[in-house]
Amino acid sequence: MKTTWKSILMAGIVLAGAQALLAEAANQDEWFKAKMGRMSPSTEAKIKAEKANVAYREEKTPDPKSADVFRESFSKAKTGRASAMEEARHSKADQSTAYREAPAPSKGAAQDHWREEFGKAKLGRSLPK
Q1: CB-based contact 54:73 (threshold 8 Å)
Q2: What is the value of pTM for the model shown?
Q3: What is the pLDDT of residues 56-104, one digit of tens each?
Q4: What is the distance between the alpha carbons of residues 2 and 4, in angstroms, rounded to a whole number?
Q5: In terms of C-beta density within 10 A (0-12 exposed, 13-18 middle, 19 or more buried), how is residue 125 classed?
Q6: pLDDT tens digits, residue range 13-30?
Q7: Which one, 32, 46, 97, 128, has least CB within 10 Å?
Q8: What is the average pLDDT across 38-50?
Q9: How far is it between the farthest Cα atoms of the chain?
Q10: Of the candidates 105, 107, 106, 125, which has an alpha carbon nearest to the alpha carbon of residue 115?
């Protein structure tokens, strides 16, 4: 009987020690940051690689023609749409932006049931048609 308890106790100690070693390896980046004041070189490399794969907009350069804010706002108020300069600037910004293509919705699968859901939410039943 004593050997059984001793073996159980030893197995528990070994497992606790292994768990402590694994937990220490996971917190090594946090320790490095606390000690050195920056991320570890391996973590910095991971972050740099992730940033290299991200598409950003081009840096906007100041347009000398866009300095006349009053004229553009007046034109928008009068005609109800942006001036030609403003539209050209927006189209240029749209062309320089990288977008992901959204998957096309499947035909017939998604239907708009907002009226039925609204009736169920408000009245607890479907609205009469």
Answers
A1: no
A2: 0.28
A3: 666 666 665 555 778 888 888 888 888 887 888 888 887 877 666 666 6
A4: 5
A5: exposed
A6: 888 887 777 666 567 788
A7: 128
A8: 88
A9: 96
A10: 125
Contact present, 28 and 40 (Cβ < 8 Å): yes
Q: Is the dihedral of CA 93, 94, 95, 96 positive or negative?
A: positive
Q: Is 49 left (phi over 0), alpha (psi -120 to 50) or beta?
A: alpha
Q: Indicate the angle between helix axes 41-52 and 28-36, nearest 10 degrees.
A: 100
Q: What is the DSSP string of 16-61?
A: HHHHHHHHHHHTHHHHHHHHHSS--HHHHHHHHHHHHT---PPPPP
The DSSP secondary-structure symbol of 126 reads P
Extract the tokens encoding 117: 């859901």
Got the DSSP string for 91-116?
A: HHHHHTS--PPPPPPPTTT----HHH
